[in-house]
Amino acid sequence: MNYVEVTQISYGKRIWGAIKWIFLWLLLIVGAVILLWRNEWRTINTTIALKEWEKITVNWSISPINTTLEWKLIYINWKADTQEVLRDTTFKIQENAIKLYRKVSMYQWKEKEDTKTQDNVGWSQTQTTTYSYDQVWDSSRIDSSQFKEAWHTNPSHRTFDAQDSVSSDVRMWDIKLSNVFIGKMDNEKIISLDSTRSTTFDAVKNISNAKIVNDVIYLWNWTLDNPQIWDIQISFYAVYPAEVSAIWQQQGDQLVGYVATNKNNVALLEYWAVSMPQMYIDAHNQNRIIAWLLRWLWLLLLFIWFNLLLGLISTLASVLPFLWKIMGFGVWLISFILALSIGSLVIMLAWLFVRPVLSISLLCALIVIITMVLTQNIPPTNT
Fold first, then answer.
1. Which domain-ending residue is among 214, 240, 266?
2. What is the pTM of this model?
3. What is the total count of domains within the chain?
4. Is residue 249 part of a domain?
5. What span, in angstroms and rounded, lies between the C-alpha atoms of 368 and 371?
6. How far apart are CA 87 and CA 95, in angstroms?
7. Same domain, 94 and 230
């Protein structure tokens, strides 16, 4: 059964509510502009740094430490390996791995909220909010203290928590990898909990209501097909030694990130045998994808926050229903124009600030093209 809450909002409260939020929307708009600028700054500087790195990277065949390559940017392809054994002492899991994860999720209540608004005569509004509740597996604890229906109660804690372990000594031949590269190794695989893991089975037997099914440990109060609130499932994952290709700087017996002249740090790593040119192609592509994803994200948020800011105008205009519809569309259109205009201006200024010669050249070329198109369409005057 769903919980329904109906709220009457007077015209005065609607106005006051819009005014209260105006400073927040302004602050968020400024924040979006700053983050859009920072994204362009990051994109441009990463592009510059990658082009610089390409010119100075040395292709190194793996061998004992080569002192002649000290402080240089090198490309290497070899197996990233470790002799360390990582352990989960609670469940008696041990793996010769670079990373070991214990992942835990719990069966819990999750509240969903659906609000519908209706405009009334007299400029007030009626808001009807329906709260529904689902039972879901979730890796984080869902706080049920604020649920509208108090009887949907989640546990205040979990019997077992997630746990991560990372090897402190990962090497390619006799060269040690720094943490920045270990962090990039994310090819995790689930650990099989088959009958060969007698110690794990013994540990599970000592836990009440625990059972292993398809490489997952379940702690349930009923059955797998009919889980109950508070039931827990636990699985284990590992990142094993593997062949990698990397571009980094040699410092003594370690390979670390390289800092370009514009202070950008390079630490490129890919699984398997990937050529040095292909690694740079992949890095440029990734940089462009991130740039466009963040551009669209901040432009969308600019539009949303402008729309909420200008929503005060729409609220004031709601005194007349037909006027509200016109103003509502006008606010949407103005918000779209403002977001697109300001966003484009920020992007242009960022490029102008970092690459002034290129930006001015492109701007001049654009002006020339527009002028030529316009002049060709102007009919000659008769003398």
1. 240
2. 0.81
3. 2
4. no
5. 5
6. 7
7. yes
- How many Cβ atoms sit within 10 Å of the Cβ of residue 258? 24
User: What CA–CA distances, in Å, run from 382 to 197, 375, 376, 377, 379?
Assistant: 96, 16, 16, 16, 9
**C-alpha–C-alpha distance, residues 284 and 49, integer Å:** 10
CA–CA dist 285, 267 (Å, integer): 15
Identify whether residues 188 and 141 lie together within a single domain. yes
DSSP 76-97: EEEEEB----EEETTTTEEE--
Statement: residue 152 has pLDDT above 90: yes
Distance CA 53, CA 61 (A): 18
Compute how many other C-beta atoms are within 10 angstroms of the C-beta atom of residue 33: 16
Structural domain boundaries, residue 183: 82-240
Confirm whether 190 is domain-assigned: yes
Is residue 139 in a domain? yes
CA–CA–CA angle 195, 199, 201 (5° rounding)? 55
86 and 225, same domain (yes or no) = yes
Tokens 């192609």 sit on residue: 281
Amino acid residing at 189:
K
Determine contact, residues 112/104, Cβ cutoff 8 Å: no
Using pLDDT thresholds of 50, 70 and 90, give the confidence band for residue 320: low
